[in-house]
Amino acid sequence: MTLSLANKVALVSGGSRGIGRAIALEFAARGAAVVVNYNKSSDAAEEVVKKIQEAGGKAAAFQADVADFKQAEALVKFTIETFGDLSVLVNNAGITRDQLIMMMPEADWDAVINTNLKSAFNCSKAAVKHMMRKRVGRIINMASVAGQMGNPGQTNYSASKAGLIGFTKALAREVAARNITVNAIAPGFVDTEILDAMPAETLENAVKMMVPLARKGKPEEIAYAAAFLASDEAAYITGQTLGVDGGMAMM
Ligand code: NAP
After folding, report:
1. For the whole model, what pTM was predicted?
2. Which residues on adjacent β-strands are paired with residue 61?
3. What is the 116 CA–ligand 1 centroid distance (Å)?
4. Which segments of the chain have a pLDDT < 50?
5. Atom in ligand 1 nearest the alpha carbon of residue 40
6. pLDDT tens, 94-112?
7. Cα(53)–Cα(55) distance, integer angstroms
8. S-S: 5 plus which of 30, 84, 131, 235, CB 3.0-4.6 Å?
9. How far is the CA of 177 from the centre of ligand 1 (A)?
């Protein structure tokens, strides 16, 4: 199979729903053993694991709030103990708490920065220790067009995603000598529950006006990009942000 992930062990943060779920399923279909991390949606995470196992793959679910340093450490430890390795880390977990800055509670700023950005530090710090020893690894950070273009009502979210892009570049330079690549994916509008926070009509108009391909993306379309970046074939790509956005942000 091209872009095979056989013999790889992947950890997908926020793998219970949406884009993370699609990545977990795609990686497993390509032969990886997958740890499906979740925070609250245990049933959804177990359903992903069951689907992978029924198809003959290897998977396990693990509850951890990745915004919390110790819980992220425990998640990485669980992955290595359960499947004996950690070759691909996908920092995918994310939330929105949209509000104009004048009205944004401090707690919503903190929640978004901690869940979307600090989580990547937490999980990567633990994972890199293992990958450095193995002298190989892949880290994929789920950014957003919001981090590239900015979005009104999303100062917290846009800052977290722009932060992830900077984090990706800096870490890529730090670990390149050990054969570890670090890349980001910047999705546009992708059809998941995270978009439920937007009024349907606003969303429809935004897609029409801002997306050259004039439709939302499917979670699977982000997963294909992640599978490529996780594969051996992508060994010479690092520090990059791959837009999977229907042409929304042409950088
Ligand atoms: P989603 O459907 O709302 O799923 C979010 C996932 O993140 C869930 O599995 C959720 O798990 C998990 N999660 C949230 N907080 C967590 C925490 N503290 N610890 C561990 N897991 C946590 O959203 P999505 O659209 O798939 O988003 C996935 C990523 O893509 C996010 O980083 C998002 O910012 C990014 N993105 C999405 C879009 C889009 O249009 N959909 C566009 C650009 C970027 P629980 O349910 O268990 O809490």
Report:
1. 0.98
2. 36
3. 9
4. none
5. 47
6. 999 999 999 999 999 999 9
7. 5
8. 30
9. 31
